[in-house]
Amino acid sequence: MFRRRGVARRRHLERQLLPGRRNRVARGALRQLRRANRMMGDGDFAGAAAIFDFLADGAQSLGMWHSPQLFLEAGRAWMMAGEATHGLDRLRHGLRLMPEMGQSYRLPLVLSRIVRELRDRGFQSQANELDREFKGLLGGVSDSPLPVPATSPMARLPAQCPQCGGSVLPNEVEWADRHSAICDYCGSLIQAEA
Asked: Is the pTM of this model over 0.85?
């Protein structure tokens, strides 16, 4: 007669995550990710940032491994759109999320890239602020690049993910095996070029 809210909510979520629904949602997210990457290339940074924000929030709510990278890309896009305060908040959130998602080992390399990009774009005070704030978080984490299999030269990766159009950064990419890397944004396997 009376239903508890938790049971109804759980059933609603289960219905949403049925295999067919999950595939449609994933395809829609991938379409939006492609669109955001195209917009970044076209210089529509605010439009891209809004999409990255939406995708990052959704990925975090689902506990997805690549949610920090989506927040970082949203922050980068907001900074490029001239929204420094919002951009810095998104960058901070992405960097804080990395250790929670088991990506502490990537933090030094990603932080140094972000700080360098901010300085190159004239955001000196924001770069210094992030650098100071996250140096303490690094503690015992080394600043060395991610391991790369000896038989997979980094130069052979495409510049962009063939699935989502996201940038592939050879010194930050995570290798799945000797011939493929994992896209930071969509999780697709990126095959090394022959």
From this structure: no
Task: Give the mean pLDDT of the chain.
Answer: 80
Single-letter code of the amino acid located at 26 = A
Number of structural domains the chain divides into: 2
List of E strands, the chain: 174-177, 180-182, 189-191
Query: Which ranges of 43-62 would DSSP assign to H, the alpha helix?
Result: 45-61
Tell me what pLDDT residue 192 has: 85
Domain that holds residue 90: 28-144
Q: How far apart are the first and last CA of the chain?
A: 64
**Would you say 117 and 169 are in contact if contact means Cβ atoms under 8 Å apart?**
no
Q: Over the range 151-172, which residues count as b (16 or more CB within 10 Å of their CB) and which as e? A: ebebeebeeebebbbbebeeeb
Q: Are residues 129 and 153 in the same domain?
A: no
Same domain? For 162 and 192 the reply is: yes
